[in-house]
Amino acid sequence: MANAENTDRMRLDKWLWAARFYKTRSLASQSVEAGHVRLNGHAVKPARDVRPGDTLEIVTGDAHWTVVVRGLNEQRRPAPEARELYEETIESGERRAAEKENRRLAPVPGSDLRGRPTKKARRQIRGFNEGG
């Protein structure tokens, strides 16, 4: 009977992990503790219960999500199934698309560099650092 009572609610950190916002439950818990996740506009603790219909504001790296909880799942499932656990708000989707476009148009300096510098690049760096 205890299982039947808890099917309409779930711990916040476990839901974030199951919905694939974080790779581990401990990362989800740390993020909630740090204030990167808000439930219905309020800062909460990782053990707070989440129910379908609740609104979550989640900040992961550069992404800022606003989602409505649509389902609960005790297990971490594949990404397409995890996306069924929430519905992103229209404003959130537009904001993330605009941020993605801004990153494309104005990339972070050095983001195109891959691996070790070439011999020519090392000489340029050494010449710049030595003033020659």
From TrEMBL:
Region named Disordered: 78-132
Bias-annotated ranges (Basic and acidic residues): 78-104
CDD domains: S4
Compositional bias annotation for Basic residues: 116-125
InterPro entries, alphabetized: HSP15 (IPR025708), S4_RNA-bd (IPR002942), S4_RNA-bd_sf (IPR036986)
Record's keyword annotation contains DNA-binding: yes
Domain RNA-binding S4: 10-76
Family to which the UniProt record says this protein belongs: Belongs to the HSP15 family.
Name assigned to this protein: RNA-binding S4 domain-containing protein
Species this chain originates from: Aromatoleum buckelii
